[in-house]
Amino acid sequence: MQVVPQTVLKTPGFSHWGVAWSPFHPGRIALASSANYGLVGNGRLHLAGVHNGHISLDTQYDTQDGLYDLAWSEIHENQLVTCSGDGSIKLWDLTINFESSAVTDAGQALELPDPSMERTFT
Fold it and tell me: Measured between alpha carbons, how far is 92 from 80 in angstroms, rounded to an integer?
């Protein structure tokens, strides 16, 4: 039996609440994280990759409030959605500039227990 080395991804100060593998890239993973165990503070979207059997952090994006869940788009390989502690839902497009990569509509309140739920909202 072959022994596979254990790999660990360290993100000091942030606890992970949601984890999702990309449906398009088998070695790409996204993590929804919150500071202070999700009680209060900022959030962070971590994007990591598995390269040569080891996981490494590729990039990260800070948010004003904790992130608690996420889901990759099943249509576009570089888009994902996150749910934040302030009740907002953000659509991230990883192909554009970070300053405008998260699209948030603060005009309407909408609560979703899980972003992977398949529903149409009008």
Answer: 5
For residue 11, count other CB atoms closer than 10 A to its CB. 14
pLDDT grade for 7, boundaries at 50, 70 and 90: confident
Cβ neighbourhood burial of 70 (10 Å; 0-12, 13-18, 19+): buried
Burial 103-122 (b: 16+ CB within 10 A, else e): eeeeeeeeeeeebeeeeeee
pTM for the complete prediction? 0.75
Strand extents, DSSP E, the chain? 14-21, 28-35, 43-51, 54-63, 67-72, 79-84, 89-93, 102-104
- Residue pair 47/30 in contact (Cβ under 8 Å)? The answer is yes
pLDDT digits (tens, 9 = 90+) for 33-82: 999 877 888 999 999 999 888 889 999 999 999 999 999 999 999 999 99
For 86-101, the pLDDT digits (tens) are 888 888 988 886 544 4
Give which of 63, 58, 55 is closest to 32, Cα–Cα.
63
